[in-house]
Amino acid sequence: MDIVKAIIVAIVEGLTEYLPISSTAHMGFTAALLGMEESEYL
């Protein structure tokens, strides 16, 4: 995984952790937008 993509996914997870919605779903959505494979961030 590219370090920039990892940082972006981490920022999105950190910002959405406090919402009453699954942060894992936000990570998946962000990874899909960045064109990452699911196995890259799990």
Describe the structure in your own words.
The protein is mainly α and 42 residues long. The chain has one domain. The protein has helices at residues 3-16, 23-34, 38-41. Helix 1 (3-16) packs antiparallel against helix 2 (23-34). It starts with a helix and ends with a helix.
What's a concise summary of this model?
With 42 residues, this protein is an all-alpha fold. 71% of the residues lie in helices and 0% in strands. Helix 1 (3-16) runs antiparallel to helix 2 (23-34).
Per-chain topology:
Blueprint (H helix, E strand, L loop, with lengths): L2 H14 L6 H12 L3 H4 L1
Helix pairs in contact: 1-2
Q: Largest sheet, described in full?
A: none
Question: Which bin fits the share of residues in helices?
Answer: over 70%
**Which series of helices and strands comes N to C?**
HHH
**Helix and strand composition category:** mainly alpha
| Large-scale geometry | globular
Which ranges are low-confidence, i.e. pLDDT below 50, for 5 or more consecutive residues?
A: none
**Rg to the nearest angstrom?**
10 Å
Number of DSSP strand runs: 0
Put simply, the count of helices is 3
- Hey, roughly how much beta strand do the residues contain? under 5%
Mean pLDDT: 77
Oligomeric state of the chains?
single chain
Q: How many domain units?
A: 1
